[in-house]
Backbone:
């Protein structure tokens, strides 16, 4: 848990330690960073940035005994004060998420390998444009995203895409994700592509059984980071670390690797 001071009069604003402890006990139970600013009508403004980059604004009474969530509106001007305060929060830092995935997906040898995370990589090995993508084999938006990546690669852009299979759409998805996790990268990608056909099934039950531990490790990381739906893209491109919940078009991916894509997913900031 970290503390940053930001927002209106942030340079001079910091609640007393006792009040901060009281607030953070409630607001950081799921992890994340807390920032403080001067709230409306003498209240304490609190910004919370979760591990997955989601940001929220709360207001607390001066004694820290009561915390409010929701939208605060200036009764005189009609201004959405919560949205204005949200825009003052520090930008989420996605590098720690990227580094965690980078380290977790390193080659693991021996018995531990059956319980380690795994991804199917396509594209240039190494390089400057790296994308980690949580996918469910049965997710149509995930397949659209893969098509977008394929289109960008076909245009000559160098990028490394790591598809991290998880099964959250039912038993069929779990078996497909496990089969991907047990397979070499090229085979795993073929399984992913074949799964776009709803009639496709895993014929080798033993293969799926061998990958259960690794697919489970992928899902555990997905949950730990606070994500809820697929696809999720965590990237390091054009020198910037970014995360996005939801699909991307080929144009958006191109802007990302050219350094002009917005770094925050559309639903990351919640008033």
Residues:
């Amino acid at each position: 848990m970290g503390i940053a001071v930001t927002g209106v009069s942030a340079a001079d604003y910091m609640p007393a330690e006792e009040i901060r402890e009281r607030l953070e006990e409630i607001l950081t139970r799921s992890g994340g960073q807390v920032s403080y600013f001067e709230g409306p009508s003498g209240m304490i403004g609190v910004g919370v940035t979760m591990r997955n980059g989601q940001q929220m604004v709360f207001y607390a009474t001066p004694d820290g005994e009561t915390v409010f969530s929701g939208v605060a509106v200036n009764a005189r001007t009609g201004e959405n004060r919560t949205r204005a305060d949200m825009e003052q929060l520090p930008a989420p830092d996605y590098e720690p998420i990227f580094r965690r995935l980078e380290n977790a997906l390193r080659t693991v040898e021996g018995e531990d390998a059956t319980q380690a995370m795994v991804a199917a990589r396509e594209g240039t090995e190494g390089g400057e444009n790296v994308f980690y993508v949580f996918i469910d084999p049965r997710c149509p938006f995930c397949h659209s995203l893969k098509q977008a990546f394929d289109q960008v690669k076909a245009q000559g852009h160098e990028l490394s895409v790591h598809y991290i299979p998880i099964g959250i759409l039912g038993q069929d998805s779990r078996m497909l994700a496990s089969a991907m996790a047990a397979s070499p990268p090229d085979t795993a990608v073929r399984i992913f592509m074949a799964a776009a056909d709803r009639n496709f099934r895993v014929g080798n039950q033993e293969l799926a059984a061998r990958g259960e531990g690794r697919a489970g490790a992928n899902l555990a990381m997905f949950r730990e980071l606070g994500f809820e739906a697929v696809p999720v893209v965590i990237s390091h491109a054009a020198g910037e670390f970014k995360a996005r919940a939801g699909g991307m078009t080929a144009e958006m991916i191109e802007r990302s690797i050219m350094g002009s894509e917005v770094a925050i997913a559309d639903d990351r900031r919640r008033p």
Summary: The CA atoms of residues 20 and 64 lie 8 Å apart. The first helix runs from residue 17 to 27. The two ends are 21 Å apart (CA to CA).
